[in-house]
Amino acid sequence: MVSQLKEALRRQMLKKRDSLSKEEAAIMSDGIAEALLKTPRFIEAKRIAFYITKGSEADTRMMIFRAMQAGKEVLIPATDHKITFYKFSSFSDLKPGKYGILEPQTRDAPEAEPDAIIVPGVCFGLCMHRLGYGKGYYDKYLANSPAYRIGICYDFQVVERLPTHENDERMDEIVTDKRVISL
Structurally, how many domains does the chain consist of? Predict the structure, then answer.
């Protein structure tokens, strides 16, 4: 039952997100970036893990650029049977990996785990859980990571409650184009 509810919500949110114009998505992504850059955990973090945008997800390029400008070490995931984060050097070093998502070609391991991780999601709940794409990669990584978890999304992707499973990991904070939600 939970998996059916999750799949229905996933389809609904992806349809709505995919219907955004490029201009709407760019404006909302800029709003997310501006809000994220002002959060205390972003400011304090020395090492931040980001995802590389695919499709209609909130665009992380400006966030990555600004983090690097601020002297932060940026980490980007590569996915095989699990997520592994590597040092980010440039957008030109990225090549499509599993699921067509851009990954670093150069696989330089960071000196330490990230202080904060920017987590993608199809949907987030005010309960601080997220609904991903259903493969469980981020939940498995987060289960063993002490990193501060920041979910980012367009504001319409936040719902009151999400159907959850015992393996679903919670966020510490959710940043949208309109608000910052934290416990």
Answer: 1
For residues 26-55, give the mean pLDDT. 96
| Per-residue H/E/C for the chain | CHHHHHHHHHHHHHHHHHCCCHHHHHHHHHHHHHHHHCCHHHHHCCEEECCCCCCCCCCCHHHHHHHHHCCCEEEEEEECCCEEEEECCCHHHEEECHHHCEEECCCCCCCCCCCEEEECCCEEECCCEEECCCCCHHHHHHHCCCCEEEEECCHHHEECCCCCCCCCCECCEEECCCCEEEC
Query: Residue 88, Cβ neighbours under 10 Å: how many?
Result: 23
What distance in Å separates the CA atoms of residue 29 and residue 61, rounded to the nearest whole number?
10
- The whole-model pTM stands at 0.94
User: pLDDT averaged over the chain?
Assistant: 93
Domain ranges, residue 122 = 2-182
Strand ordering across the sheet containing 123-125: 130-131, 123-125, 158-159
Give CA 22 to chain center in angstroms: 19
pLDDT of residue 1: 66
CATH code of the domain in which 96 resides: 3.40.50.10420
What's the CA gap between 32 and 27, in Å, rounded?
A: 9
